[in-house]
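Re: the 328-residue chain
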Amino acid sequence: MVRLVANDSRSHFGLTVLLIVLGAILSIYWYIHVAVALSQQSPLTYRESPRTEQWAVVISFFGIKTIYTILTAIIIFALRHRREGDLVALRWSMISFFIGEAFCFVNVMAFHDNSVPMEHLHSLGMVLSIAFGIYALLEGVDARIIHYSDVGRCAFASMCDRCAKHVDVLCGLRRSFILMLPLLALAAAMPLYSSFRDTAYTTHVLGANHIYRHSIVHQVYELRYLPAAAIALFAACLLMVSLVERRSMPVSKILLAAASGAMTFSFFRLMLVASYIDNQVWFAVWEETLELLTILAIGGVLYLFRARLLAPDTPKGANDAAGSLSCT
């Protein structure tokens, strides 16, 4: 089983690092280019926010954000010694999320939520966190449930007429991916046809003046750059799965996770922009709330299956030997 750790295939780890570095460089270049081209922003207007909305945004930022930041740190600490591929990827997902939220906190407290570079670094951390999280899910399902990468028959063997691991036939699961990847690439194109909304205003939040602006610069990155990157990565994954067969599975999982991370964050922001661009108090509140729910779900799964996932002395290769997850 190929895992995202030091003693596994270095080429796969190198591909992961390469995707992160190239993605960061290209997205930063994109931001700089677009920020210069769109330097003229709409003028600020003043809007009165109801008292309930003011308390909602304060509770979400100082309460909800604090809770999920602490929970994220606890998860990182709990996973600090894990060497299983899915848990290593999950740890990096939480680290990326923690760093991204740190940039968000600095942006609000030091730059009044009006710094383009800080918001970009926040978004980049979110994309990486989602990508690592999806890789952790793919690796965990493979190693602990399906066993597709094992030498023996996988969990889908009962659905196939003959197994490609033992007979020269096309793998049913592989053919499913060949069908699914073009559909995902088409779905990823949806944000490319959305409209931009440069709504900016200032309001008072419990006596303090606050600027709300989700500028065109950010929307171009979220609704144009990320969908295009996702489509390219889905295409690369399809090429690997179609041409290299089972040997491509470790690399394909990396490409699929990277594409899914870009697409998921793009759809997440598309939903928030479409729903709350005219009242960005709720944009912020629901973003923080959904992030808390995600961290609670991750922490809950780790706790429920802690006997297997967080056992102090899990032997090397336990992932491969585990036919199922046990809980207490």
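Confidence is low (pLDDT under 50) at residues 1-9, 314-326.
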